[in-house]
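Handout, section B. The chain below has 355 residues.
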Amino acid sequence: MAKRRRLTAPNTADLEELEAGFAAKPALNPFEASATTPPIAQVAAEAATLNGMASVTDRVALAQDQGDAALWRDAQEAGLVAEMLPINQIDAEFIRRDRMVEDEEAMSELLESLRVHGLRTPIEVTRDGDGYGLISGFRRLDAFRRLSENDPRFSTIPAFVRESGSGQGAYVSMVEENELRSNLSPYERGRIAVLAVGQGIFDTTEAAVDVLFAAASKAKRSKVRSFAVVHEALGDLLQHPVALSEKAGLKLASALRGGAQAQLRQALAEAEALDPKSEWAILESAMNAAPSPNKSNSRGGRPKQVKPLPPVSLPGGGDVLAELSSDEVRIRIRLKGVSEEDVQELVKQIAHRLS
């Protein structure tokens, strides 16, 4: 029977010598300078390192995505992101338009440009219930509607969705665009100021002019106010208002402030269909025939306001027209075949009604 050998624990010096020997042992790869590491430990370390790097990368990407999303929302809320909107959801008459006359030749050029190049400048709209109200871009929207009749590509249009509503901001945007792209006529400037007051956007015409044409000089705003006077007094009777030159409009405004409104309205009301030249001749004749105003009333102020009332059609043809001022009511009846007795009876009935 073999004799068992007694084992003795190594001393500290022997263990230190063994550890030094392992540390000095060369690696299997002669080109590898680092000490050999157990494979499982190396794999675990590499996995941990890669996992940490991925986490950092993901956090950076997430932060960037969140920042981009916030910027996108801010830009969208500010109306700086164009959206494709169905043209049948856009109300072109959401606010009163400043442009009165459209140039068909220019429209033909726009249609051809859209066919070839598409729309480069989106329109501007604001949310209106389930749809949108047009702020600026009336001609572009009109062109898209014409083109969509034969080409489905134009059934939607790029648009900036603003939050300006139907208030002052909407009118300012519309006027600014038309002033930059193609100047409004002097009459159109005055007219849109009056219309904005009529819709309750501004309290007075003066305030409307100051806001809508804030970038204009004081002299230019004064001229716009003069054309506003012309529109208020004669707008419903003028057949070619856009044709009025700046000089002609200022002359009309001066005559109106001097008390010639009644004569000018009567002259226009009695005129038949006119061309621009003939209409101005009638206005000049009425101004020359009007009595000269007193010096005390010749400067400043506004003309006596005469409010035209909606005409009433008669069943058998013709209509009744009326105008109201602070101290006068004018009634005009356009009707053929009325006898003198009928007129006398009508006057008596009016007198009895007002007594």
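Note. Residues 312-354 form one domain. Compare this with the example in section A.
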